[in-house]
Amino acid sequence: MIPCTKTGCHRWFRNKSGLTQHVNVYHPVLPSVNISVPVEQCQESSAGEEHSQVLPDGYGDSGNPLDDPSNSNPLAEYVGPGDRYYRNYHPNLTGRPCDSLGNFLPAGHPAEPLTDMQPDDWSPYSSRLEFELADFLFTRSQMSAANINELLNLWNASLLSTGGQPIFRDSGEMYKTIDSTPLGDVQWEKFSTSYTGERPTENVPPWMNDTYDIWFRSPKEVIRNMLSRPDFSDAIDYRPFREYESATDSRQWEDFMSGDWAWKQADTISRDPATHGSTFVPIILGSDKTTVSVATGQNDYYPLYLSIGNIRNKVRRVHRNGVILIAFLAIPHMDKEHASTDAFRRFRRQLFHSSLAYILHDLMPGMTEPIVMWFGDGHYCRVIFGLGPYIADYEEQVLLACIVRGWCVKCLAMRQALDTDALYRSREHAEALIEEFDLKNLRDEYGIIGDIIPFTSGFPRADIYELIAPDILHQIIKGTFKDHLVEWVESYLKAMHGTAKANAILDDIDRRIAAVAPFTGLRRFPEGRHFKQWTGNDSKALMKVYLPAIEGHVLVEIMRTFRALLEFTYLVRRNVITEETLVTIEDVINCFHKHREIFRESGTVQTFSLPRQHAMKHYPDLIRLFGAPNGLCTSITESKHIDAVKDPYRRTNRNKPLGQMLIINQRLDKLAASRRDFSRRGMLEGSCLTATMQLFSTRDGRAHSNTSEAPGLNRCNEDTDEAVDCPTSIEVHVELARTPQTKRARTVTELAAELNLQHLPTILEEFLLQQLDAYDNCDSDLPEWPTYGNKITVVNAAAALFYAPSDISGIGGMRREYIRSCHSWQNGAPRYDCAFVNTDSGLKGMYGLDIVRILAFFSFVSQSKRYPCAVVRWFDRVGDKPDTDTGMWIVRPAFTAQRRPSIGIIHVDTLYRAAHLIPLYATRPVSRNLKPHHSYDSFTAFYINKFIDHHAFSLLSDSY
Question: Which residues, in sequence order, are bridge partners of residue 536?
Answer without folding.
Answer: none
